[in-house]
Amino acid sequence: MDALREMLQKRKQGMNFAGIPSFCTASDLVIEACLQQALRFDDCVLVEATANQVNQYGGYTGMKPADYRDFVYKIADKVGFPRERIILGGDHLGPLTWQDEPEKEAMEKSVELVKLFVSAGFKKIHLDTSMRVADDSRDEALSDEVIARRGAILYEACEEAYQELRKKNPDEARPAFIIGSEVPIPGGAQEAEDSISVTKPAAVEKTLAVYRSEFEKRGLKDAFDNIIGIVVQPGVEFGDAEIFHYDRVKAAELTRAMKKHDNVVLEGHSTDYQSPKELKEMVEDGIAILKVGPALTFSLREGLFALSMMEKYLVPEEKQARFIETMEEVMLADPGNWQKHYHGTEDQLALKRKFSFSDRCRYYFAQPKLIEAVEKLFANLSEVEIPLSMLRQFMPRQYNRVRDGQLPMDPRELAKDCVVHVVEDYNYATKLNYLISDVFD
């Protein structure tokens, strides 16, 4: 039994601590940090790519699904993490990047997209058809029936791709699927909000009902055997400078109603920046799949900024990597990935490009100029001695670990450890008795 279905079985047996974090990222340093930390456990790691990061045209990373798979596996081989313990996931698979096209063209591209993900060995597939395409009405919400009809088409395409895999390997594991119509947009809220509405139980019931109906229309009678989760809005979200924290009381109507559906769990998107306690409560309440993405690269960016500040004191100006300045230059030269998301005066925009919780700067980390700046930053600081007292000033968490002999004074390891801090929160939420293990030794 695969790790996702095993998690579902544990919850059926009353183990309400069972959950799994989903690390949604295309950053090599973030993935490296996640896998290295997971080596501490005999456990699987779920790593996901979104349809705008990775698709048949390369996405903003330049990678197709098979390229992303090989990218993750190469990192795993480098750190000694077993490939068979990696679950690859495809997130927001549907018309996400083709919303300006009519349904026929957008869905044809979506079918090709999901087939490529399944063919490349991705085992967690989030079917997301919740967004309007060009010929949908702009005056009314997209109906559950339309969302489910399109989702069923994509599920059938995935099944076709899976059967092709089985011809080569009869023991090929079947993908697990996530559905849902109340799907938060990738990367956090675009506008400031006063409150977040929790999904109503009736909305979940309708989603399940219309999907069953659409599956039956297409002769996919066993489809729900492979649907393990449904995306909901449990009341968590983040924007540029605000975080909406989980309130289990406000979510109680939803989480209680879902207990009768023991064949599916809830998947929480935008769980970034929640506290460890809130994440643990979500898992206990049935939100067992915790998606996190921007918080990982936000923490990596924090680490790179801290290293840059130390570089300014330790390295002659003419030799400095200028990572902070280079990131700003790259983002200004190609504003397409932040301009529609950040609003305000020029001064406010400058701050958001660097410090927004939405972390749109992550879209630029794969650009050659930024890769070169990061490597130069690491090289520069490897050639000098970072005073322990300076490390305490700019990286206090890492200072504690270096002081105690748990972390080397190596700039690359210092940056990755900023990501580990986030990973630890999710491990605490999804692993039984995590805090009494030897993880902090």
Any overview of this molecule?
With 441 residues, the protein is α/β, with parallel strands linked by helices. The protein folds into two domains: 3-293, Aldolase class I (TIM Barrel), CATH 3.20.20; 298-417, Orthogonal Bundle (GI Alpha 1, domain 2-like), CATH 1.10.400. It has helices spanning 3-12, 28-38, 65-79, 103-119, 144-168, 201-217, 252-257, 276-284, 294-314, 323-333, 346-355, 368-382, 388-394, 396-403, 411-430, and strands at 20-24, 45-50, 86-93, 124-127, 176-179, 227-232, 237-238, 243-244, 265-268, 287-292. The strands form two sheets. The protein has an eight-stranded parallel beta barrel, surrounded by eight helices. It is globular and about 70 Å long.
A few lines on this structure:
The chain has 441 residues and is of the alpha/beta class. The protein has 15 helices and ten strands.
